[in-house]
Design brief:
Layout (H helix, E strand, L loop, with lengths): L2 E5 L3 H13 L3 E5 L2 H5 L9 E5 L7 H11 L5 E5 L4 H9 L4 E4 L4 H19 L22 H13 L6 E4 L6 H10 L8 E5 L5 H9 L16 H4 L4 E5 L6 H13 L1 E2 L8 E2 L3 E6 L3 H6 L5 H7 L2 E4 L10 H16 L8 H9 L5 H15 L28 H15 L4 H8 L3 H11 L11
Helix pairs in contact: 10-12, 13-15, 16-17, 17-18
């Protein structure tokens, strides 16, 4: 028989809940104050708590914190006559399972209790991530123990000290930049800068200047000379993401640098040199682009001096538990959301998914689920996974692409708290490109401080 603890200073409410819950087959204990309720939180404590917020002495929030410390797997349902936004937000922030206003709808209360007890059962059936301790979060860590990933690790070790150009190939979301950073930080170039450039995020006319720099007066708006990424990466590693998107005319200059290690700024005549190791990445078949005349064959062969193939996540499902553990720790660091238990049902959903977006999709799914799950248990229903015919998509509306893009940019800006730098990183575009789109679409931003 399940036990429910009712903590409420209103005698009539305690009695009403006692009678109702006993009729539903529960054992019920009651308390009038938070201190009295605390006496019931021992090893044989309740399976669920119904908690009023306004109590004599210590309030319900204090008691909620005690439950989270003493019995973190026990769900707490807050019930209060002060059913406003601030109390609801604070209750959920502190880990309440739900927040119900008085007078109580007993039918709805029964539903909430059933769901809360299901949550507690899921917590007891939590998935053990791995026999070994979970990885300590580090932004440069690559996670995986599968045979395919061990081959990647060996390749990283083989090229880490070499100045040879490296080409990383893999589907979108497989972690190509993470691998590029691992190559940099594990080799003799580690003390130099790591400079990353997304070749698809810049207009073709700007990419050449971004890479090689420009002299004053080289073009309209070039009011002063500016060094390019090759110069900024001196003594370190330049990571060229989405190398397949480099225009043919820029490919010529890039080829010259890889051959001779020299270049000129846009609008300049001085030949410059840079001691830079180049790591490029692509999710497209460069050989096919060469065959179609969209990519220079000589540059292709220069790039693929050393090639690393990253496996898609669907080919290494044995790594998913470890990745889940790693990303939940990352989410705890970044969002302050501590999700410690993943039920077997949820883990099976993660294992069965095909992950077309690979590791990036897994991280985003866990991030959303962690935000939506109350307490320390990840609820399976918060994993909104899209896969084949079972995709849970929003209704499709036939709209112009311009409207779709504007709406997406507005959503990302709101998600990023209107921090343009962060929004641009999420969108995969440069800050100037984002500013231009905001102007073009007439997107209104809240008035904030500089950098917003």
């Amino acid at each position: 028989m399940k036990t429910i603890l009712v903590v409420d200073d209103d005698r009539s409410i305690r009695r009403s809940l006692l009678l109702h819950l006993k009729r539903r087959g529960f054992r019920v204990v009651t308390a009038e104050t938070a201190r009295e309720g605390l006496e019931h939180l021992g090893p044989d404590g309740p399976d669920l708590v119904l908690l009023d917020l306004r109590l004599p002495g210590e309030d319900g929030f204090w008691f909620l914190d005690q439950v989270r410390d003493v019995r973190p797997d026990t769900p707490v349902v807050v019930i209060t006559a002060y059913d406003d936004m601030s109390t609801a937000v604070e209750a959920m922030r502190r880990g309440a399972f739900d927040h119900l206003g008085k007078p109580l709808d007993l039918v709805h209360l029964d539903t909430v209790i059933r769901r809360a007890l299901d949550l507690a059962a899921l917590s007891r059936r939590g998935y053990a991530f791995a026999d070994a301790p979970p990885p300590v979060y580090d932004p440069h860590t690559i996670v995986g123990r599968s045979r395919a990933m061990k081959e990647v690790y060996k390749a990283i070790g083989a090229v880490a000290d070499s100045p040879a150009t490296v080409l990383i190939q893999g589907e979108s979301g497989t972690g190509k930049e993470v691998v590029a950073r691992a190559i940099h930080y594990n080799g003799r170039f580690r003390n130099g800068p790591f400079v990353a450039v997304s070749c698809s995020a810049l207009a073709p006319t700007l990419l050449e200047s971004e890479l090689f720099g420009h002299e004053r007066g080289a073009f309209t708006g070039a009011v002063q000379a500016k060094p390019g990424k090759f110069e900024l990466a001196e003594g370190g590693t330049l990571f060229l993401d989405e190398i397949s998107e480099v225009p043919l005319d820029v490919q010529v200059k890039l080829l010259r640098f890889l051959q001779e290690r020299e270049f000129e700024r846009v609008g300049g005549v001085e030949t410059r040199k840079a001691r830079v190791r180049v790591v490029a990445a692509t999710n497209r078949d460069l050989a096919e682009l060469v065959a179609r005349g969209e990519f220079r064959h000589d540059l292709y062969y220069r790039l693929r001096v050393v090639t690393l193939e990253l496996p898609p996540l669907r080919e290494r499902p044995e790594d998913i538990p470890l990745l889940v553990s790693f990303f939940l720790e990352k989410i705890r660091h970044e969002l302050g959301r501590s999700v410690e238990v993943v039920p077997e049902e949820a883990m099976e959903m993660l294992r069965a998914h095909s992950w077309p977006g690979n590791v990036r999709e897994l991280e985003n799914a866990l991030r959303r689920a962690a935000v939506l799950s109350p307490g320390r248990v990840l609820l399976p229903e918060t994993l909104r996974l899209e896969d084949g015919g079972r995709r849970e998509r929003l209704p499709l509306y036939v709209r112009p692409l311009r409207e779709v893009e504007r709406e997406h940019i507005e959503n990302v800006l709101a998600y990023a708290g209107y921090e343009k730098k962060r929004a641009a990183e999420i969108l995969g575009i440069s800050r100037p490109t984002l500013d231009k789109k905001i102007r073009d679409y007439g997107i209104d931003l809240p008035t904030r401080g500089p950098g917003r």
